[in-house]
Amino acid sequence: MSATLTKQPLTTERSSSYAARIDHVSKSFGRPGAQQQVLDDIALDVAPGEFVCLLGASGCGKSTLLNLVAGLDKPTAGSIDVPGGRPALMFQEHALFPWLTAGKNIELALRMRGVPRGSRRTEAERLLGLVRLNGSYGKRVHELSGGMRQRVALARALAQDSKLLLMDEPFAALDAITRDVLHDELTRIWAETHVSVLFVTHNVREAVRLAQRVVLLSSRPGRIAREWDVEIPQPRRIEDAAVADLSVEITEQLRGEIRRHGQH
């Protein structure tokens, strides 16, 4: 049973324009003759301003696909086009430099982008305000909680001013309450900035909580098994009945993929 479809505040029209195009991409690792295929014939567009979650069991190639879109590796077959330039990437670990303050971590990304020195602090403080960390410019990483560190990491990613934000399970290590708060914050920031988001997770409810579209990957090798348009209005709660109903449907499909490929 699908969730009730309702128009969202931020609507994305599917058209010939895209923030990322994954065009029949396959990826294998290993030596010729002893290769392991991880991804097989993935074809997926992310529309401008769209929030897409890649969902699948561990080892299905979600992070591999994200790395390909980020330009950190090359596909074995097919092509990837990101017309807005290099995407921003946010990892599960915050990857902040501990010897720099929160503000200076963000300023580093601004410097790499070519922002003049005189403007960097103002822009870093603006981005800290966007993630609701006003007054944290001078704080060291060890002074920040796990959730605060991820907010700084998100601000640093946004500092790259990319039209596409790639997120690889960025909230997986956080406790449930902090994760729920950051879901709210990410939804707000996405709506305010209109950035396109490609978000990797193995958490079904997280995917339904956040995304406009959920793409399920099968395993061994990863293929697109099914997609769902999630038109439940934002803001959503993880415990909402519509979120729960669609999560059950997707979970059943995911379990079927796991059984089909002999995973436990």
From TrEMBL:
Record-linked SMART domains: AAA
Stretches assigned to the ABC transporter domain: 20-244
Domain of life: Bacteria
Keyword field: ATP-binding, Nucleotide-binding, Transport
A Pfam match: ABC_tran
CDD domains listed in its UniProt record: ABC_NrtD_SsuB_transporters
GO molecular function: ATP binding; ATP hydrolysis activity
The keyword Ribonucleoprotein appears for this protein: no
UniProt xrefs under PANTHER family: ALIPHATIC SULFONATES IMPORT ATP-BINDING PROTEIN SSUB (PTHR42788:SF13), TAURINE IMPORT ATP-BINDING PROTEIN-RELATED (PTHR42788)
Descriptive protein name: NitT/TauT family transport system ATP-binding protein
Organism: Streptomyces zagrosensis
